[in-house]
Amino acid sequence: MSAEREVLTWELFGTAGRELAQEIAADGYRPDLILSIARGGLFVAGSLGYALDVKNLHVMNVEFYTGVDQRLELPVMLPPVPNAVDLSGAKVLVADDVADTGATLKLVRDFCADHVADVRCAVVYEKPHSSVKCEYVWRHTDRWINFPWSTEPPVVSRPQQILDA
């Protein structure tokens, strides 16, 4: 990974969300719902939901990153896990901020695969080593990314919520 960082500002995120939505629309994909991977994917899903006129947004909480380039051994789904029956037969667009290793996206995509009519992934950034090649990507990079929602430290620090197993 490059020592240089990719910097995404709020203004540039607005451009990224719109261009990503245009790519999805131009492909003719019309999702029934958008499944956001929290937390970074919440911003992407909201942006895509407005641009693609999709009001049915769901959230899947997945813990993987614990710090800058620090992660758990495997991603972990946190409750509440979406009920598969709510996704049954739907065209699902999985939204996240980055496909880094691809492990989180793979976990969510595989969770959906047996229940939905079609599942596709949309991300702002995709890294070359990602195990998941997303259908919709705004930019490719090998750099660490400074997202506007996670660059500043938290206003309040909370104790670690996931214990290393």
TrEMBL record:
One of its GO terms (molecular function) is xanthine phosphoribosyltransferase activity. Gene3D superfamilies: 3.40.50.2020. Residues 6-152 form the Phosphoribosyltransferase domain. Its EC number is 2.4.2.22. The keyword RNA-binding does not apply. It is an enzyme of class 2 (transferase). Keywords: Glycosyltransferase, Transferase. InterPro entries: PRTase-like, PRTase_dom. This is Xanthine-guanine phosphoribosyltransferase. It comes from Actinomadura verrucosospora.
